[in-house]
């Protein structure tokens, strides 16, 4: 009978069950390695990696010891990088070298590149020469480039062969032992001239030449391309795998979508972390690393808050005469901040997905101003009416309504302009946007409201 | 010679070039349909879809008219849904029906489900009976479920066949004309018993039976599973395609990773939009829809800002005696808001990626409190010192430092607890988190600072 890998008793809704975790903890507590291995046996490597992440941190080292060689290459590849660092630190270099040798180049590189240089060297020294060369070659490409993501193992055939000959060759070389999703067709200089999906190969008679089956158009990935661009290209053209070429156009590797899915999710998810200045934002990151990443943005925020507060300080005389202004000022700033963040989130996502380009920047700005006008009129009406009624001061209601409308319009404009401008100067539009936009809406909110209140003679 | 689909002259870095867009606009302006078609001919469907999105909105209808039947199923599938709605509205139901008939079921369903019911019916009425039934069946599954994502076209074979027989059958049925990535093995009741990747089929001798090649363990997707769960499962188990089964366990369809990549990116990217209350956050969305989506969160924010401001209003007497407090209070609130948003972003991402579970909630809370303590001490020291020196008031410096430390600790706690609690009660942890967390940090910031200032007798 078949079993469903995702619904073994240990796993429910893609997550390890609580009672399963407690059973593993009990076995570790009892120092019963045999029971730990028995529990772990049915797990998919991805679930075994989850086990390390979900258990209390103190159990990670005993768990690794109990698993022994069950802690294999696949499991290490699936593990959160912070947790993996911890686990690898408990293993001998020879043990790590053995696991790394079994990995595809891309997974091996992902593991080695995160290690301390001396630990990485110790592992490389323990490896067989070809495995080591493969990894060292990959590491010679820039960080986060296609060269580090690609697998060097691939199937390439010349275009004069018949489909039957290709299949015969594959049957004669089962030792490649790898999964592949397309067969590349290359010229004598090993430059790609076409590609065949395996379903085309399987549905074509043996005597048809490769040249008649292959598709000549294909998406090629330069080996130095940044992984974010690679991910966008995979998304845009719905690729399952793609050829990687060096600067001379020769086929040097292949990237498959399963390595990209992880990057797509990470790149899309990290905008929220960048906008708030939360660094890598991983709950497994050491506390000190999180502190260092976050505190610098809090300090930047402190700086901008001090600047905005000087605006209020300029109006001390006004506030002294009408203290309720001190309670109302933050409302105008807060509503502008929220409106600005909404627009900024939309702009940052549109830039990240290549939807917002130079061709439609002005259209997008005009669009956001229209949305801001509608939002501003609604909020101004509600806030103005509320203040007028609750405080019984019509004029104060009119002043705060005007200030809120003005600030929401400013917020809409800043929410697009700040990320677009950062992007134009090749800075990451997500990273510092929040600081600039909030500073603008705070300062403008304070200034608009207190100036109007003074001018209206409310405090005269 | 081969051409590289992603670097035709019209496209650079995955984007359409500005001069290409201007050339198309000039041809449309001159009403030269032949030239428009000539320019569009080398484009990949994804780039042709981009052309509609990037051109000024007034050109979309003339472009659709000029392209005629070049505007095919693939191009419509690739188009942003708001832009597609606009384009489809300009086409005849028969023309839409023809395009939809050529699509895979998943793409056809994605298009039909977004149409107004009467327009959808008009298109369905124009379709051939089997195509219509296929789409109506898919539409009978819940929105955003696996049943709507799946393709019904798939290859399934019985396990007693030999590999050679499978290949012969495929060669005899080239009319399936579809791409597939794995072959499913089913029992007589059409329940899946195993799966074969095509690379295994190609590397296996003809006389080996399917039963010896197939993998019995596979990840099955229930037809009613939510698309977000499907995406997590694809990510976790690095799937290229997966079988979809009905409630009786029968194979009813297949989902491939290229349909999922889009969802992974969307789900990961939409947290930032939800947290800020930006709705769908699409720059092609009609202005009125964006207004409706965003204004309700601005109103919620207005409500919470009014509540927080009543705290300040309680301290009118205190502020009257020392107006500088009015300028300093927003700083304490702002820094707490930023710290809370950082923690919230981390928690929301960890929940979305299944990393934060009941098993490690307490560990994560303790971790965030430690980070908050370090951040709080740093910011308190800087802010306290700054205020003491700049305003020459040691006691005021001490008060604001204590308030900032307290508020950053509150922010750290609220930043985890709010999304975790929402998630526990099966609410979306991203959606309302921001409102709750900001209300907490604003209120607590105002309260802590003004209370301490009163107690310290600063204004006495």
Task: Using the coordinates above, name the CATH class of the largest domain in chain A.
Answer: Mainly Alpha
Helix count, DSSP H or I runs of 4 or more residues of chain A: 22
Biggest interface, residues from each chain:
A-B, 149 and 150 residues
Mean pLDDT of chain A: 89
SSE sequence of chain A, one letter per element: EEHHHHHHHHHHHEHEEHHEHEEHHHHHHH
What is the radius of gyration of chain A computed over CA atoms, rounded to a whole number of angstroms? Answer: 30 Å
What name does CATH use for the topology of the largest domain in chain A? Tetracycline Repressor, domain 2
CATH superfamily of the largest domain in chain A: SLC41 divalent cation transporters, integral membrane domain
Q: What fraction of residues of chain A sit in β-strands? A: 5-15%
Number of strands of chain A: 8
CATH architectural arrangement of the largest domain in chain A: Orthogonal Bundle
**Fraction of residues in H or I helices of chain A:** 55-70%
Largest sheet of chain A: 3 strands, mixed
- Number of separate domains of chain A: 3
User: Which assembly state applies to the chains in this document?
Assistant: homodimer
Structural class of chain A: mainly alpha
The largest beta-sheet of chain A arranges its strands as 3-4-5
First-to-last CA distance of chain A: 87 Å
Runs of chain A with pLDDT <50, length 5+?
none
Shape of chain A: globular
């Amino acid at each position: 009978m078949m079993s469903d890998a995702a619904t073994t008793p240990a796993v429910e809704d893609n997550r390890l069950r609580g009672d399963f975790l407690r059973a593993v903890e009990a076995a570790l507590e009892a120092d019963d390695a045999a029971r730990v291995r028995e529990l772990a046996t049915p797990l998919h490597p991805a679930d075994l990696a989850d086990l390390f992440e979900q258990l209390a941190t103190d159990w990670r080292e005993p768990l690794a010891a109990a698993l022994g060689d069950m802690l294999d290459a696949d499991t290490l590849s699936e593990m959160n990088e912070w947790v993996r660092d911890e686990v690898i630190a408990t293993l001998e270099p020879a043990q790590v070298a053995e696991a790394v040798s079994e990995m595809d180049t891309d997974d091996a590189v992902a593991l080695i590149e995160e290690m301390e240089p001396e630990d990485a060297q110790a592992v490389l020294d323990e490896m067989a020469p070809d495995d080591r060369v493969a990894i060292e070659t990959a590491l010679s490409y820039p960080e986060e480039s296609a060269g580090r993501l690609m697998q060097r193992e691939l199937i390439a055939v010349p275009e004069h062969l018949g489909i039957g000959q290709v299949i015969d060759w594959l049957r004669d070389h089962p030792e490649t032992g790898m999964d592949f999703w397309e067969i590349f067709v290359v010229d004598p200089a090993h430059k790609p001239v076409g590609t065949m999906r395996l379903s085309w190969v399987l549905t074509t008679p043996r005597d048809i030449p490769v040249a008649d089956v292959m598709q000549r158009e294909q998406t090629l990935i330069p080996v130095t391309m940044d992984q974010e661009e690679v991910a966008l290209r995979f998304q845009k053209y719905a690729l399952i795998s793609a050829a990687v070429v060096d600067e001379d156009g020769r086929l040097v590797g292949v990237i498959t979508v399963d390595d990209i899915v992880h990057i797509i999710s990470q790149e899309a998810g990290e905008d929220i972390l960048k906008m708030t200045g939360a660094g890598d934002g991983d709950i497994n990151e050491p506390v000190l690393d999180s502190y260092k990443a976050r505190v610098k943005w809090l300090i930047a925020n402190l700086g901008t808050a001090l600047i905005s507060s000087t605006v209020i300080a300029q109006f001390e005389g006004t506030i002294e005469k009408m203290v309720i202004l001190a309670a109302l000022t933050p409302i105008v700033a807060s509503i502008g901040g929220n409106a600005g963040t909404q627009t900024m989130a939309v702009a940052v996502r549109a830039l990240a997905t290549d939807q917002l380009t130079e061709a439609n920047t002005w259209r997008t700005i005009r669009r956001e101003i229209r949305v801001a006008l509608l939002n501003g009129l609604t909020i101004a009406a509600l806030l103005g009416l509320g203040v007028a009624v609750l405080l019984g001061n019509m004029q104060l209601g009119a002043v705060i309504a005007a200030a809120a409308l003005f600030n929401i319009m400013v917020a809409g404009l800043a929410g697009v302009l700040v990320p677009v401008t950062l992007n134009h100067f090749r800075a990451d539009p997500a990273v510092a946007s929040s600081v600039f936009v909030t500073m603008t809406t705070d300062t403008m909110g304070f200034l608009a409201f207190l100036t109007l209140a003074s001018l209206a003679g409310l405090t005269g």
